[in-house]
Automatic annotation (TrEMBL):
<keyword id="KW-0472">Membrane</keyword>
<keyword id="KW-0812">Transmembrane</keyword>
<feature type="transmembrane region" description="Helical">
    <location>
        <begin position="250"/>
        <end position="269"/>
    </location>
</feature>
<dbReference type="InterPro" id="IPR010065">
    <property type="entry name" value="AA_ABC_transptr_permease_3TM"/>
</dbReference>
<dbReference type="InterPro" id="IPR035906">
    <property type="entry name" value="MetI-like_sf"/>
</dbReference>
<keyword id="KW-1003">Cell membrane</keyword>
<dbReference type="InterPro" id="IPR000515">
    <property type="entry name" value="MetI-like"/>
</dbReference>
<comment type="similarity">
    <text>Belongs to the binding-protein-dependent transport system permease family. HisMQ subfamily.</text>
</comment>
<dbReference type="InterPro" id="IPR043429">
    <property type="entry name" value="ArtM/GltK/GlnP/TcyL/YhdX-like"/>
</dbReference>
<feature type="transmembrane region" description="Helical">
    <location>
        <begin position="77"/>
        <end position="97"/>
    </location>
</feature>
<feature type="transmembrane region" description="Helical">
    <location>
        <begin position="118"/>
        <end position="136"/>
    </location>
</feature>
<keyword id="KW-1133">Transmembrane helix</keyword>
<dbReference type="Pfam" id="PF00528">
    <property type="entry name" value="BPD_transp_1"/>
</dbReference>
<feature type="transmembrane region" description="Helical">
    <location>
        <begin position="26"/>
        <end position="46"/>
    </location>
</feature>
<feature type="domain" description="ABC transmembrane type-1">
    <location>
        <begin position="73"/>
        <end position="268"/>
    </location>
</feature>
<keyword id="KW-0813">Transport</keyword>
<keyword id="KW-0029">Amino-acid transport</keyword>
């Protein structure tokens, strides 16, 4: 028997005489046991009857349909789609300005990105809802609440998506542009036909993540003074919770948000995995 086969035992009865793998197994077992004990303790101490009545009252939840879908969910999806569309178009323009060889374009793009990424989205909603009518009397934003919400979301999304698109363009190998130019293709045509399509394939996952964030940020539309038919999920749930004296409508609104965000998150992870497999 060699010296390596003899494992010294700890005289004080501690785990120092055990192998690293065994110590790790015991540590994980202790963590799992502690976690299970906390869950059991919470389950025993919680007042499930009160929780069910206030957060999962089926009678209250049943009365929310179909308005929670036809009003709240529909408007949330609409505000998100308009904001993302404006942000995607604006982000592409600002990204190209950021990469431009013309200094004023770069200065404007950099300033825009820094300002709108640094300001809270709530201030942007207040500016769109209050500042624009005061600055331009008699001017109304097309589309009503959808136009106002889309503009506020689009202004911020433009700043974030501009950086995402710029990173995607810079990730395209420079040889692609050089090959296109060597064939006599103008720079602008090579950018639109060769570089930008490849860049968008690269940045599809972060674009999907930004769409998820915009969906949740659309809840700030309540600061625009919307009507009952223009309510998003958050406003809808909050109004009904106050009306019925029960928080179940807020839970239902949260579940509706998950119906949008979870599939988008799964799609983003799937696209990211496919992109890694293609490398």
């Amino acid at each position: 028997m060699t010296a390596e086969q003899v494992k010294p035992s700890a005289p004080d009865g501690t785990l120092s005489g055990l192998s690293r793998r065994r110590r790790r197994q015991l540590s994980l077992g202790g963590q799992y046991g502690l976690f299970a004990a906390v869950i059991v303790l919470i389950a025993l101490l919680a007042d499930w009857g009160t929780l069910r009545h206030n957060f999962a009252n089926w009678d209250v939840a049943e009365g929310l349909f179909p308005d929670v879908i036809t009003v709240g969910l529909r408007n949330t999806a609409l505000y998100t789609a308009v904001g993302f569309g404006l942000g995607l178009g604006g982000g592409l323009v600002v990204a190209l300005m950021r990469l431009s060889s013309v200094p004023p374009y770069r200065w404007f793009a950099t300033t825009y990105i820094e300002i709108f990424r640094g300001l809270p989205l709530l201030l942007i909603f207040i500016f769109v809802g209050v500042g624009v009518p005061l600055a331009f009397p008699g001017t109304t934003i097309p589309g009503g609440a959808a136009g106002q919400a889309g503009l506020a979301l689009g202004l911020v999304a433009t700043a974030y998506l501009a950086e995402t698109i710029r990173a995607g363009i810079e990730a395209v190998p420079k040889g692609q542009m050089e090959a296109a130019r060597s064939l006599g293709m103008p720079h602008s045509r090579a950018m639109w036909s060769i570089v930008i399509p490849q860049a968008f394939r690269i940045i599809i996952p972060p674009l999907t993540n930004q769409l998820v964030l915009l969906c949740k940020d659309s809840s700030l539309v309540l600061f625009l003074g919307i009507t009952l038919e223009q309510r998003d999920l958050t406003k809808f749930g909050r109004d009904l919770a106050g009306e019925k004296g029960n928080t179940t409508p807020i839970i239902v609104a949260g579940i509706c948000y998950l119906l949008i965000t979870i599939p988008l998150s799964l799609l983003a992870r799937r696209l990211e995995a496919r992109r890694k497999e293609a490398r």
